[in-house]
Every structure is written in structure tokens, then in C-alpha cells.
Amino acid sequence: MGGRTLHFHLAGINNQNFIMSDEETGTWWQQVSGCAILGSLTGRCLEMIPWDEVTFETWKREHPRSLVLRPAEDAREHYAAADWEKEIAEYPTVTPVDPRDGLQPRDLVVGVTSGTVAKAYRWTTLVAQNPILDTVGDTPLLVLLDLDGRSLRCFDRRVANETLELFLRRGICPPAIVDSRTGSEWDFSGLATAGPLAGRRLARLPCLKDYWFDWKTYNPGTRVYTAGTLPVD
Amino acid sequence: MVRMKRASALILGLAVLGSLAWVATPMVLIRPFGAQTPRGLAVSYSMRSHGAPLTLSLLILGLAAAIVLRPRLASWKGRVLAGGAVTLLAACAFLSRQDYFEWMFRPLPHPGFLDADQAKDVADEDLVLGIEVGSEAHAYPVRAMAYHHVVNDVVGGEPIVATY
Fold this sequence. Notes:
The structure holds two protein chains of two kinds.
Chain A (H helix, E strand, L loop, with lengths): L7 E7 L2 E6 L5 E3 L5 E3 L13 E4 H7 L4 E3 L14 H5 L19 E7 L2 E6 H7 L2 E5 L2 E7 L6 E5 L1 E2 L2 E2 L2 E4 L6 E4 L5 E2 L5 E3 L8 E3 L2 E4 H7 L4 E2 L9
Parallel strand pairs in A: 8-20
Antiparallel strand pairs in A: 1-2, 2-3, 3-4, 7-8, 7-19, 9-10, 10-11, 11-18, 12-13, 14-15, 15-16, 16-17
Chain B lengths: L1 H28 L8 H32 L6 H20 L5 H4 L8 E3 L11 E7 L2 E6 H7 L1 E6 L2 E6 L1
Antiparallel strand pairs in B: 2-3, 4-5
């Protein structure tokens, strides 16, 4: 930030999204946005770098030389259990959600923004329909789960001025993402691995797996996606 | 002399009340599972950022009042009370210098890393946050991040902060 490296600490909570402070200026930052809310850097935002939330297996497959955070010996006993999401799902929430949205506060969604438009995709809808094709603002979007059913990525589905319709072809082993016009096969990294478009790559779009109440608090105008017709294999 | 005793006791009492209120108010306003407002956050921020010098001043003031008071206190109850008041002031001065959120979720000031095949605590189906900068990739297991929440790191020469 302005040529200075900041070091962050957990410093509080704002409607169940945490606040961090930096050692250097004491400014408070909102985790979900990366933007400073109180203190001398108020209004400044950290640059969001592309990240993944994927299974360890998928990550290792794509980054075999990756390093992994070593557990801290004095904290390891506090690390979350494998099924910790079930426990968190029971925690109360404090921000109001609109019952007309049809979602519970702790429902998991995938949130995507494009310009001023925000959309949310229910996790359960994504699992049932994977992949989801939609348009957010002017951006044709692909929301994709890996075959493990847990690893998530979002892409702009335009390649060379053409908007692709992609679907999961289950009849082959392993199942592959295929585009309907050329039949090219695409992998989870967004790369066409076979077919006429082989070697082309879809551009990544940031998307966030989040609880509905949290996403809605910071993106109040969000529209919730309702399942469309499934492209037929 | 009685007036001096009363004034000292009053100063000591007010210092304790002021110090406690100053430390406790942001704790209450930004408590987990409470609803926060922008105004409440602004008040908490202001109180937290001025807390250290203020509570130290009140501790010094209270200590001075207790020193004046000490020879004028005949009963052991009064002495215990005065001692307790000074202890409370010291506790407030200490708390105002602490990031108590990091008591619950200890930070990782010097994160260590393993090769992927050495990470025995992480199952294949566990989620990780992953980033790649240049030719360097780091994975942060979600089960560890759900505890630490914040990890300051350098990846591919870029200073980053991973949050969950």
C-alpha cells in the first residue's frame, strides 16, 4: 500500500465478517472487501489477487510443487474438524435477510459481481446443475465445480469473440466439460485440452463461496439465480 | 484532612469507572454474535486507538490518589478496596494494549511451510485456499485458516495476506 508493506492482525468483528488491523497504521480493514473502513487509510482497498478454494487433491494435481502451510504446534488442537461446516451452519446470524430471497441466512452461495451487478448461485443448485451458465452484467459466466464436487472456479466463457455454451459430458471417462459448438474438451483450469479449440484458455473471474447473509450484507442488490433449463447431452 | 481523604477516594473511584468503561465499551460493541453498526464501529475504533495513553494516565492518577489515601485508611477493608482499585486500573491499562481477539485465535507471525507430500494433516478432500504468484504456489488449508483467519506471507516475492 503506497510502497509500504502492511502486516495484518485479527482485530474485531463486524456483523460476523472479521475486521483486521495493520501494525503499521492501526487502520481497520474489512475482510470480505479488503477495504479500509476506519483509520488513516480509510477508503483504500488492498489489491485482490486471484485465489482458489479447491480440494487439496485438485490443488496438488495442478501445482505439484506447491508448499503447504505448516500447522502451528501450539494451535493445531484448535484447528477445525473435517465436518466443521455442519457446526458453523447452526450458529446464529445477526444481519437481516429478506425472506423473499428464498434463502436461509446460512445457505451457501457462490457470489459473483460484474460492475454494479451482483448475482448469487445456491451451492445446492450448482451441485445439481454443474456447470451453471449465466450472464452477469455484460459478462457471460461459467460457474464450475470440479469432479470432486467441492472445488470451485468461475470463468468468462467468451473465447475469440464467441460465447461458448458448455456442459458436462458424463458419458465419457472421466467426464469432461465440452462446448456445444466445437465439442472441444475443457479442463477445470479453463484450458481446452482436446478438439478444435485445444490450447485456448477461458479467463478466470473472481467468485466467492460465502454464506448468504454475509454476501447479502456486502452486496445488498444481489439477484439470486434460479435454475434454468439444463443443456441436454 | 477528611476532605483530602474524600477527594482522593473520589478520584480513585472515578478513575476506575472511567477506565473500565473505556475498555469494556468496545468489547461490548464489537462482540461476536452481536450486530454492529457503522457508528458503533467508529466509537470502538476511536476508543481502542486512544485506550493505551488514556488508561495509563488513569492508572497514574489512581496510583497517586491511592498513595495519598494509604496513610489515611484506618481499616483493612479500605486498604483492600484501594489496592483492588489500583489493580483494576492496571488490568485496564494492560487490556487496552492487547489484541484480545488474538487470544482466541492465535496469529502466525512466522508461517512455516511443508512440501505437499509432507502435509500429513491435510486430507485430499479437504479444501485449501491456494495462490500462485510467478512460479511459486502456496496452499493454506481451510481447517487451519478457520482458526488463524489471517496469515501474512510472501509468495513469489509479493507480500500478501491470506484471510478466511
